[in-house]
Amino acid sequence: MTDGDGSPTVVIDAYVPAEMASRAERVGVTKARLDTFSTLAMAVLAGAFISLGSAFYTTIITETGMGYGPTRMLGGLAFSLGLILVIVAGAELFTGNTLIVMAWTSRKVTTGQILRNWALVYLGNMVGSLATAALVYYSGQWKGAHSAVGATALSIAAAKLNLGFGEAFLKGMLCNAFVCLAVWLCYGARSVTDKILAIVFPITAFVAMGFEHSVANMYFLPLGIWLSRHQEVVAAAGDTVKTTSMFTTDRFLLYNLLPVTLGNIIGGSVMVGWFYWFIFLRPSRRPQKHGDGK
Fold this sequence. Notes:
Helix content is 72%, strand content 0%. It is mainly α.
């Protein structure tokens, strides 16, 4: 931008919500039209980024001795690394991409385009998460603090696998409401610092409250399944893991990932995306274009 005499000016005010809605809509169109190979590559990165945040979270909450609330808050701050990398470095994350529904509701994206994006990004996120989980597992990072890090990872997985279908679904809804609010706040940002600050509080909140993120679970649960084969890790986990029989691929996919994914879709697309579309982008709210009267 320039001022009256042609010299450049710097705008530091955040975008207002109506402008954020227009930005979200434009980004949704761009994401939906991105070519297949770029979409997949960026989705693999996002899966890896969220998994790195998950590994950081696991390490940070191990043996803190701080009590439930402070430990969860500290872990949430660590987990925020994942979405910071996604937003600032650039990647395609399934949970955040549920906001494409804003462009779809405005009929700027077809049903086929949004479903194609979600499918490709979900697949890429899964590949990135599994690859990162394998790297963490075979690197032996979980052996830290005499396998206490591995015990923490196993306990996290056990708690997730013990959720009922409805509980996992609702925790998935609430999680992605927070994630998409973080992404939404980033549309108001003008700098990297703005984006990081916008991300930290919503992500810390959902992690501290124990809500469920499908892409993070693509890392946590496979790692837990692999660690359940190590008796020293199971022993270190203590009463948090009463049996290893729950650590199966079927239970991971059907009892956790499926309901959490469905909940994530509703939480992001309806609780955040559709509501902000209705407030700012529905036809009666858009500026009307008029002719010149000729």
